[in-house]
Each structure stands twice: as structure tokens, then as C-alpha cells.
Amino acid sequence: MPEDTYDVIVIGAGPVGENVADRIVQGGLTAAIVERELVGGECSYWACMPTKALLRDAAALRAVRSLPAAAQAVTGELDPAAVLRRRDSFASHWDDAGQVSWLVGAGVALLRGQGRIVADRTVEVSSAAGAATTVHARHAVVVATGSSAFVPPVPGLTETAPWTSRQAASAHAVPARLTIVGGGVVGTEMATAYSALGARVTLVSRDGILPTVEPFAAARVTAALEKAGVELYPTTAPAEARRDGTGAVHLTLADGTTIVSDEILVATGRTPNTTDLGLERIGLAPGDWLRVDESLRVVDAEGAVVGDGWLYAAGDVNRRALLTHQGKYQARAVGDTIVARARGTEVDLSPWGRHAATADDRAVTQVIFSDPEIAAVGLTLRAATDTGLDVRAVEYDLGAVAGASLHADGYEGRASMVVDVSRNVLVGFTVVGPDVAELLQAATIAIVGEVPLERLWHAVPAYPTMSEIWLRLLETYGRDAHSRTPFPGAR
Ligand SMILES: Cc1cc2nc3c(=O)[nH]c(=O)nc-3n(C[C@H](O)[C@H](O)[C@H](O)COP(=O)(O)OP(=O)(O)OC[C@H]3O[C@@H](n4cnc5c(N)ncnc54)[C@H](O)[C@@H]3O)c2cc1C
Ligand SMILES: NC(=O)c1ccc[n+]([C@@H]2O[C@H](COP(=O)([O-])OP(=O)(O)OC[C@H]3O[C@@H](n4cnc5c(N)ncnc54)[C@H](O)[C@@H]3O)[C@@H](O)[C@H]2O)c1
């Protein structure tokens, strides 16, 4: 059996694994990456990119239609087949040649096959053809194996061969009727996309629509889905499912309602890709999320690092924040940490230190590409209160900002900021409205930079842009930093 040694072995060539390996090589070490499917992972072929491509045309059409003069120029309807073709190109036609050539150019060795940990610092790679190679790591192994769709144990559901996010992202035809189970990010984005593409969509959710975002933002997306014709069952769970002889799926809910559709999409969260990774060989439980310490080293149930600390985990698999950009941020931190430890140089894990992934706790960013979009960073009012912070939140009507009223006739949106009263800094920001995604980074910088509110008054938003929402939120909060006097729109 052939054997090789590298400084670092990364298992999983999704966006996170690729960035870990690149960072390792940039740091002067050697790296091999193990991939069983496509280099680029879920994000490139079945998640971020293709789903955003499914959503983009309808958003552009809505934008044009909200300007009466420009709307005159729109003479037809959305062409679903053309949307799917454009989506295909954003999924690189499910061919990873482009990403492989990037990896090779970056100096990373690619080992195709299933990676399994067989001993400390040792990984066996089994190719689809049955060949096995054993590779050794001088310094570290990084698990970046991501996650897969979780299918809940609803009687009959698996037998219906339901869609998961993979099929929703890569479908080559739009079903006439689509039932979606799950009211989280995948459920709402795909309800937005497929209703715009012409499907009659029913959305079933046990815990409401977007339960983890600010309630005012979730309410606007819920109203927009209803306006788009999506039938919502927001507080009931599926009880059983079956596919009949004609191919139709019957989903019966806990309240006895039965929904009939051509396809059913299960969007009920994720499960870690750790079932066939050899975790049992190192005392960890296959199928579990990997727990990590502050330097992203894997720890056991008691919190002790595995072995002498040779095993790290980054990205979805450690469950800190299931988002590509947060995983890539972890990748930069873990790559630099491994290089520093290999060289014996200082590892700075202090908050916001070079090797810490502090933003995972305090400043996770997310854009939900529903229509309207939701862009959020940091803590919601509820999350901040639950963590015991003394906070005050204010909201403002984005539609009342000059830039927004110019952007589209009848523009509707809303924003909020959550302020840590004791430090007078922002800890959370949420905005909902059409085309708000690009407003997010200013808030992220304010939170990460811990910019005091009195200084934010000097960050003057250009007129007439939607960024003037900042000025309005500050005015609503009140210039006296510690004022608790309620202002119009404040709570
Ligand atoms: C529908 C959908 C839309 C999304 N949209 C967004 C978005 O717009 N923005 C955003 O930030 N996030 C989005 N996400 C989340 C994002 O896709 C994930 O956070 C991201 O893909 C995680 O990257 P990763 O590298 O950790 O894992 P993955 O992308 O899952 O990659 C892991 C890789 O490891 C490989 N692998 C697994 N086990 C093994 C093994 N034992 N041996 C060898 N290889 C292995 C897999 O084949 C895969 O290629 C979306 C998710 C879904 C489901
Ligand atoms: N734009 C983006 O950033 C983007 C887009 C899509 C996905 N993602 C990420 O991908 C991950 C997965 O998304 P998701 O929507 O699958 O998960 P999610 O956690 O956002 O939502 C899952 C939903 O399913 C419901 N649910 C769970 N178990 C259920 C059951 N047994 N029966 C009925 N309902 C059940 C939950 O209440 C929840 O509302 C998320 O972490 C998300 O951040 C990000």
C-alpha cells in the first residue's frame, strides 16, 4: 500500500478545507487534501451558488417592476428554463476541473477518495475503485467534512424519495406543486425561488418561519411569501408521508391536513459528515458534531483535546456557524494556528487575536436571500437579552429613508440595532427589505471594531443612499449615549 507524509492533511475539499490547505501552504508547510466527491464541496454545487442563481432573476425582475418607467420595457415573464441554464453555469455544470486546477496551482496535493482516520496523524484514503493509500501528517489533521441534509424520522418520508437541498439546488425542471418541510433558511429561500419559477408552493414548519431572526424581519418575509401565493402551515409538523402510484406525494400533518404535491423538499437542518470518518478509532462517536476548543482543536466529551492536539475541525462539521464565510474565517484561523505551532511561534487566542475565531461568537454575518432579503450580524435583541447583556434596541422604517424611496416605488423595509448599554457599542444589527444585502458590512465593521456610538455619529452616510438608515437609527437611539428616554420608533 503506497504511503506518503505531508505536514498537514485536510479531510474534505469544501470551501473550508480548500482555505485551510491554502493557508497551510502559504505558511510554508506542505498539505494534502482528501475529497470523496467534488472539489468545492456543498457550497459550490448544491448550496450557496446554485441557490442564489435560482433566486437572482426573479429579484432583478421585481426590482425593474418597482420602477414604472422601466417596467414598461419588461414585456414578458420569467423564463424558468433560462434560469436553470444560468444556474447550471454557476454550479460549473457539476464539474470540479476549475477548482482542481486552483488547488494544484496553490500547491496542494489532491487525494481523491473517502478519508478515514486510522491512527494518530494517519488517514487512509479509499478510492471509488477500491484502492487504498495511507497518508501521515507530521503536524496536524484537519477535519472539514461539512454537513448533509437531516431528514426527520417521519413515517414514510424516506420512502417518498424526498428532495433535500441538493435536489432543490440542482433540479432540471420545476415541479408544478412543491411541498417544503422546514421554515428555516433553506425552506424560505427555496419557497421564494420555486414560487417565482412557477411552482405552487406549500411550506410546512413546526417552529414558525425563520424563528432565529428578529421577529419584525421574519414577519416581512412571511407576508411576502403569502403575497407570492405560498401556502403556509407555520406551526404544525408532518405526521406521515407517502408517494402514490401516479407519483404524487401525500403529506399528512399533525392536525390531520393532507397536502398533495409532485415533489417534497425536506429542509429541516443539517447532520454532520462524521459517520464514516474513523472517529471510533480515536475514542469519538461517529455521527456526532465535532466539539472544538478555542483554537479549533477537537475535544472529547470531557473537553480534553484528542491525543496531543493533532486533530482540528473547521466549518460546518464543528457546528459553530453553518455558513461558508464563517467556515472560511475559521479556516484562516486554524491554518495560521497550525503553522505557528509547527514553527514554535506565538499563538494569539485572545479575543480578536490573530489565531482566534472570535467573530463566531460575537459577529456572525448572514444574508437570507428571500425577497425581501434579511441581512443580520451579531445578536438579536432576544439572544442578547438571553446572554445577560444590558441592551437597548431601536428600529427604523427603511422605506422612510430617501435612498430607499428612490430605489423603488413603495419601498418597504425595516432595520434595527441592538446596543450594549454598558459599553455603548453595537452588538447586533438586522435589516429587512429588497436589495439590502450590501448594507451589512458597515454593521459588521461597527460590531467587530467595537466602535462607540458617539464615534458612529461621525460616520456620515452619503445622501441619498440607503445607508442613511444608520443616521436614522442613531437619531432614534438618542445622542446622549446612555439616554433611556423613549424616542419615536424606539423600544
Ligand atoms: C441550500 C443551501 C444554501 C446555502 N447557502 C448559503 C449561502 O448563501 N451563504 C453561506 O454562507 N452559506 C450557505 N449555506 C451553507 C454552506 O453551504 C455551508 O456552510 C458550507 O458549504 C460549509 O462548508 P464546509 O467546507 O464546511 O463543508 P462542505 O461544503 O459540506 O464540504 C465538505 C466536503 O467534504 C467532503 N467529505 C465529507 N466527508 C468526507 C470524507 N470522509 N472523505 C473525503 N471527503 C469528505 C464532501 O464531499 C464535501 O466536498 C447553504 C447551505 C445550503 C444547504
Ligand atoms: N443564505 C444563507 O446564508 C443560507 C442559505 C441556506 C442555508 N444556509 C445554512 O444552511 C443551514 C441549514 O439550513 P436549514 O434551513 O436546513 O436549517 P435551519 O436550521 O435554518 O432550519 C431548519 C428548520 O426545520 C425545522 N425542523 C427541524 N426538525 C424538524 C422536524 N422534525 N419537523 C419539522 N420541522 C423541523 C426547524 O424548526 C427549523 O425551522 C443553516 O444553518 C443555514 O444557515 C444558509
Q: Structural class, judged by helices and strands?
A: alpha/beta
Q: Percent of residues in beta strands?
A: 15-25%
How many beta-strand elements? 21
CATH topology of the largest domain: FAD/NAD(P)-binding domain
Largest sheet: 7 strands, mixed
GO biological process, one term: 2-oxoglutarate metabolic process
Protein name: Pyridine nucleotide-disulfide oxidoreductase
InterPro entries: Class-I_Pyr_Nuc-Dis_Oxidored, FAD/NAD-bd_sf, FAD/NAD-binding_dom, FAD/NAD-linked_Rdtase_dimer_sf, Pyr_nuc-diS_OxRdtase, Pyr_nucl-diS_OxRdtase_dimer
Organism: Aeromicrobium yanjiei
Could you name the key traits of this structure?
FAD/NAD(P)-binding domain, Enolase-like, domain 1, five-stranded antiparallel β-sheet, disordered C terminus, binds flavin-adenine dinucleotide, Pyridine nucleotide-disulfide oxidoreductase, FAD
List the helices and strands and how they pair.
Blueprint: E1 3-11, H1 15-26, E2 31-35, H2 41-46, H3 48-65, H4 68-71, H5 80-90, H6 97-105, E3 109-112, E4 114-119, E5 122-126, E6 132-143, E7 147-149, H7 165-170, E8 177-181, H8 185-196, E9 200-204, H9 215-227, E10 231-233, E11 238-243, E12 249-253, E13 258-261, E14 263-266, E15 270-272, E16 311-313, H10 324-343, H11 359-362, E17 365-368, E18 373-378, H12 381-386, E19 391-397, H13 402-407, E20 414-420, E21 425-433, H14 440-448, H15 453-456, H16 469-477
Parallel strand pairs: 1-2, 1-6, 2-3, 6-16, 8-9, 8-14, 9-10
Antiparallel strand pairs: 4-5, 5-6, 7-15, 11-12, 12-13, 17-18, 18-21, 19-20, 20-21
Bound molecules: flavin-adenine dinucleotide and nicotinamide-adenine-dinucleotide.
